[in-house]
TrEMBL record:
Domain of life of the native organism: Bacteria
InterPro entries for the chain: Hemerythrin, Hemerythrin-like, Hemerythrin-like_sf, Hemerythrin_metal-bd
PANTHER family: BACTERIOHEMERYTHRIN (PTHR37164:SF1)
GO molecular function: metal ion binding
Nuclease among keywords: no
Official protein name in the record: Hemerythrin
Gene3D superfamilies according to UniProt: Hemerythrin-like
Signal sequence, renumbered to the chain: none
Organism: Lutispora thermophila DSM 19022
Domain Hemerythrin-like stretches: 10-130
Record keywords: Iron, Metal-binding
Family assignment from sequence similarity: Belongs to the hemerythrin family.
NCBIfam families assigned to the protein according to its UniProt record, in alphabetical order: bact_hemeryth, hemeryth_dom
Keyword Iron: yes
Amino acid sequence: MLWKDKYELGVPVIDAQHKELFKRVESFLQILRSGDSWDEKVPKINETLEFMKKYVVEHFRDEEEYQRNINYPRYEAHKQIHDSMVNYVQDVSKQYEQSNNNEYLMQQFGGKLLAWLINHVAAEDQLIADYAIKKGMRDNDR
């Protein structure tokens, strides 16, 4: 599994959502890399896209609420990163529908999604955890 315990922020709802995102992205990549024909993959690809369009919005909302609750000083910059990713997912989804389920587009999307998720959770989101620890808003038990 792509998830590593070091990615945990110590906020149960956020950590659970991150784990679910990692699980879904890993499953998405396995579908893309499988030996099935593209026509066989399309329903699963479509399901993943629909999930991502909804779940990233829900997750980002929860994560941003946590940031506001702890008065995280980089909230606005972090929100912009989230907004940019939501726009990317929506744009790719629209392009995919308009292209009649273009396989190459999904291969690119899978790679970018994985890289973004790892980099974001391992770097940007860790800054939130570090801030919360520094402010005594959670136990330093990582």
